[in-house]
Amino acid sequence: TYIDQSLSLERIARPSEAFEVGRALGLFHGLFDDLPPERLHDTLPGFHEAPCYLLALDHRVAQCSLEESSGSVLEALHFIDARRDLVPVLERGKLKGDLHLAIMHGDPKLDNVLFDRASGRAISLIDLDTVKPGLRHYDLGDCFRSCCNAAGEADGGSVVFDLTIFEALLAGYFKVARGFFSRVDVDYLYDAIRLLPLELGIRFLTDHLLGDAYFKVDHPGQNLLRAQRQFQLVVSIEAQEVALRAIIERLYRG
After folding, report:
1. How much is the pLDDT for 67?
2. Cα–Cα distance between 28 and 65 in angstroms, integer?
3. Which residues contact 70 (CB under 8 A, 6 or more apart)?
4. Closest Cα partner for 191 from 99, 125, 108?
5. How far are the Cα atoms of 5, 80, 205 from residue 55, in angstroms, in the given order?
């Protein structure tokens, strides 16, 4: 359905926009909170299950001759190897019973949020082909990944995880999510923030090694560059862990 007088944003220019994105995602999750996830067909098995992407990378690496790989590829593989224990963190939480399946959007990046032209309020999430049973933490991590890095996935600009945008976005989410987002959910939130750019970087690197079969590229090596930028975002997140955890706790406690 076409939504008149709406627009999507390429970049978040002010914290109020980030707050609206968080509020929209929280409202989306809340509206589906009483719908049993098993009632939805899983249209994309394995989508946003991070260990599946690492398995695909390992399979591709096993087929490659690493002696012929560039130093940049080897550096990216070493970066991932140093964080292998992070990759299954959300799936481990699910197996332990800490995290529970819910309805996830699957692709809550910034340009999938529509804003009202007149009021600046977020009015809709679009691109619903990825809606499926899953963990809300994948949605949250992916939303933060998309919104809190002003440089995006382009080849230029420094990659920094913006704490001001993060705080506003999470405040918007918690404004409507307190009824269903538990203390245990909060305990996994930092890991989700750190995991999702790593997951996307793994996907970009795998596609680079496959000859750019999935993600469209404008020039050779672009998916490798995209992977490197996601890994730079991981580094920025890790460098700000104390501040991120403090913001999460303060906003959750209200």
Report:
1. 63
2. 45
3. 224
4. 99
5. 43, 12, 13
Q: Which helix H or strand E contains 103, and what residues bound it?
A: strand 102-104
Question: Which helix (H) or strand (E) element contains residue 234?
Answer: helix 222-239
From residue 126, give the alpha-carbon distance in Å to each of 58, 60, 114, 119: 33, 33, 7, 19
Strand segments (E) across 120-159: 122-125, 132-134
**Dmax over Cα atoms in the chain, in whole Å?**
57
Q: Is 151 exposed, middle or buried (0-12, 13-18, 19+ CB in 10 A)?
A: middle
Measure the N-to-C terminal CA separation of the chain; round to a whole number of Å. Answer: 37
Following CA atoms 214, 220, 221, 225 in sequence, which dihedral angle do they give, to the nearest 10 degrees? -80
Written as six digits, the tokens of 152 are: 């995006």
168, 171, 173, 174 alpha-carbon torsion, rounded to 10°: 170
**Residue 103, φ and ψ in degrees, nearest 5:** -95, 125
Residue 240, token pair as written in the block = 């700000």
Question: Which pair of tokens denotes residue 14?
Answer: 């002010």
Rounded-to-integer distance, Cα 115 and Cα 4, Å: 10
CA distance 107 to 91: 18
pLDDT tens digits for range 130-156: 999 999 999 999 999 999 998 776 656
Asked if 6 and 119 touch (Cβ cutoff 8 Å), the reply is no
Tokens of 183: 């203390």
CB 3 within 8 A of CB 114: yes
Structure tokens at 178: 């307190």
Write out pLDDT tens, residues 213-247: 999 999 999 999 999 999 999 999 999 999 999 99
